[in-house]
Amino acid sequence: MLHHVTFEVSDIERSGTFYDGLLRPLGWRRQIDTDTDKAWGIVKPVFFIELETKASANGALVCFSASGIVAVKASWQAGIDAGGSDDGAPAQRPERGGAYYSALLRDPDGNRVEVAVGPD
Protein backbone atom coordinates (compact mmCIF):
# COMPACT_ATOMS: atom_id res chain seq x y z
CA MET A 1 0.00 0.00 0.00
CA LEU A 2 1.26 3.47 -0.82
CA HIS A 3 1.60 6.05 1.94
CA HIS A 4 1.72 9.10 -0.33
CA VAL A 5 2.87 10.42 -3.71
CA THR A 6 4.78 13.67 -4.34
CA PHE A 7 5.33 15.63 -7.55
CA GLU A 8 7.91 18.40 -7.77
CA VAL A 9 6.51 21.57 -9.37
CA SER A 10 8.12 24.79 -10.56
CA ASP A 11 5.26 27.14 -9.54
CA ILE A 12 3.50 26.07 -6.34
CA GLU A 13 0.52 28.44 -6.71
CA ARG A 14 -0.15 27.57 -10.36
CA SER A 15 0.04 23.86 -9.61
CA GLY A 16 -2.06 24.28 -6.47
CA THR A 17 -4.81 25.83 -8.58
CA PHE A 18 -4.57 22.97 -11.09
CA TYR A 19 -4.81 20.24 -8.46
CA ASP A 20 -7.62 22.04 -6.58
CA GLY A 21 -9.62 21.96 -9.82
CA LEU A 22 -8.71 18.40 -10.74
CA LEU A 23 -9.33 16.87 -7.32
CA ARG A 24 -12.41 18.78 -6.12
CA PRO A 25 -14.84 16.76 -8.31
CA LEU A 26 -13.38 13.59 -6.75
CA GLY A 27 -14.19 14.74 -3.22
CA TRP A 28 -10.59 15.57 -2.28
CA ARG A 29 -9.69 18.73 -0.37
CA ARG A 30 -6.46 20.61 0.22
CA GLN A 31 -5.15 19.63 3.66
CA ILE A 32 -1.66 21.16 3.68
CA ASP A 33 -0.98 24.62 2.29
CA THR A 34 2.42 26.28 2.76
CA ASP A 35 4.64 28.37 0.51
CA THR A 36 6.60 25.26 -0.53
CA ASP A 37 4.23 22.31 -0.03
CA LYS A 38 0.57 21.53 -0.67
CA ALA A 39 -1.28 18.25 -0.17
CA TRP A 40 -4.72 16.78 -0.83
CA GLY A 41 -6.73 13.84 0.35
CA ILE A 42 -10.14 12.71 1.51
CA VAL A 43 -9.32 11.60 5.05
CA LYS A 44 -5.63 12.49 5.20
CA PRO A 45 -3.13 14.06 2.80
CA VAL A 46 -1.83 11.47 0.35
CA PHE A 47 -0.96 13.51 -2.74
CA PHE A 48 1.67 16.21 -2.31
CA ILE A 49 3.31 18.81 -4.50
CA GLU A 50 6.51 20.53 -3.45
CA LEU A 51 8.29 23.52 -4.88
CA GLU A 52 11.39 22.70 -6.90
CA THR A 53 12.37 25.53 -9.23
CA LYS A 54 14.11 23.09 -11.58
CA ALA A 55 11.20 20.63 -11.66
CA SER A 56 10.73 18.61 -14.81
CA ALA A 57 8.35 15.81 -15.72
CA ASN A 58 10.06 12.45 -15.39
CA GLY A 59 7.63 10.14 -17.14
CA ALA A 60 5.76 9.14 -13.98
CA LEU A 61 1.98 8.95 -13.88
CA VAL A 62 -0.40 9.10 -10.93
CA CYS A 63 -3.97 7.84 -11.31
CA PHE A 64 -6.80 9.07 -9.09
CA SER A 65 -9.88 6.91 -8.60
CA ALA A 66 -13.27 8.41 -9.43
CA SER A 67 -16.72 7.36 -8.27
CA GLY A 68 -18.08 7.17 -11.81
CA ILE A 69 -17.87 8.40 -15.39
CA VAL A 70 -19.46 11.76 -14.52
CA ALA A 71 -16.70 12.38 -11.95
CA VAL A 72 -13.98 11.42 -14.48
CA LYS A 73 -15.37 13.92 -16.99
CA ALA A 74 -15.82 16.68 -14.38
CA SER A 75 -12.30 16.20 -13.00
CA TRP A 76 -10.72 16.20 -16.48
CA GLN A 77 -12.61 19.35 -17.50
CA ALA A 78 -11.74 21.12 -14.25
CA GLY A 79 -8.08 20.19 -14.75
CA ILE A 80 -8.11 21.58 -18.30
CA ASP A 81 -9.85 24.75 -17.09
CA ALA A 82 -7.22 25.13 -14.34
CA GLY A 83 -4.23 25.10 -16.71
CA GLY A 84 -3.67 21.44 -17.50
CA SER A 85 -3.34 20.05 -21.01
CA ASP A 86 -5.18 17.15 -22.62
CA ASP A 87 -3.26 13.89 -22.74
CA GLY A 88 -6.25 11.64 -23.47
CA ALA A 89 -9.84 12.85 -23.38
CA PRO A 90 -12.39 10.95 -21.26
CA ALA A 91 -13.10 7.61 -22.93
CA GLN A 92 -13.48 3.88 -22.52
CA ARG A 93 -10.03 2.23 -22.50
CA PRO A 94 -10.64 -1.42 -23.50
CA GLU A 95 -6.91 -2.16 -23.41
CA ARG A 96 -7.13 -1.71 -19.61
CA GLY A 97 -10.06 -4.09 -19.13
CA GLY A 98 -13.75 -4.22 -19.95
CA ALA A 99 -15.31 -1.39 -17.96
CA TYR A 100 -12.23 0.83 -17.57
CA TYR A 101 -12.99 4.51 -18.29
CA SER A 102 -10.42 7.25 -17.80
CA ALA A 103 -9.08 10.64 -18.80
CA LEU A 104 -5.46 11.77 -18.92
CA LEU A 105 -3.93 15.20 -18.48
CA ARG A 106 -0.58 16.85 -18.04
CA ASP A 107 -0.21 19.23 -15.12
CA PRO A 108 1.42 22.65 -15.69
CA ASP A 109 4.91 21.07 -15.33
CA GLY A 110 4.13 18.20 -17.72
CA ASN A 111 3.54 15.47 -15.11
CA ARG A 112 1.02 12.85 -16.28
CA VAL A 113 -2.21 12.55 -14.33
CA GLU A 114 -5.04 10.09 -14.92
CA VAL A 115 -8.54 9.93 -13.43
CA ALA A 116 -10.22 6.53 -13.77
CA VAL A 117 -13.15 4.36 -12.86
CA GLY A 118 -13.34 0.66 -13.51
CA PRO A 119 -12.46 -2.73 -12.14
CA ASP A 120 -9.62 -2.71 -9.62
Which key phrases capture this entry?
120 residues; alpha/beta; 4-stranded mixed beta sheet; 2 helices; 8 strands; 21% helix
Q: Can you describe what's shown?
A:
The mean pLDDT is 93. 21% of the residues lie in helices and 38% in strands. The protein contains two helices and eight strands. The protein is of the alpha/beta class and 120 residues long. The two termini are 14 Å apart. It is globular, with a radius of gyration of 14 Å. 30% of the residues are buried. The protein has a four-stranded mixed beta sheet, with helices on one face. Strands 5-8-7-6 form a four-stranded mixed beta sheet, covered by helices on one side.
Compact overview of the structure:
With 120 residues, this protein is an alpha/beta fold. Helices cover 21% and strands 38% of the residues.
Q: Indicate the low-confidence ranges by residue numbers.
A: none
Give average pLDDT, whole number.
Answer: 93
**What is the total tally of β strands?**
8
Main beta-sheet strand count, sense and barrel state: 4 strands, mixed
Oligomer: single chain
H and E string: EHEEEEHEEE
Detail the topology: elements first, then pairings.
Elements: E1 5-9, H1 12-23, E2 29-33, E3 37-41, E4 47-51, E5 61-65, H2 69-81, E6 85-92, E7 101-106, E8 112-117
Parallel strand pairs: 1-4, 5-8
Antiparallel strand pairs: 2-3, 3-4, 6-7, 7-8
Helix pairs in contact: 1-2
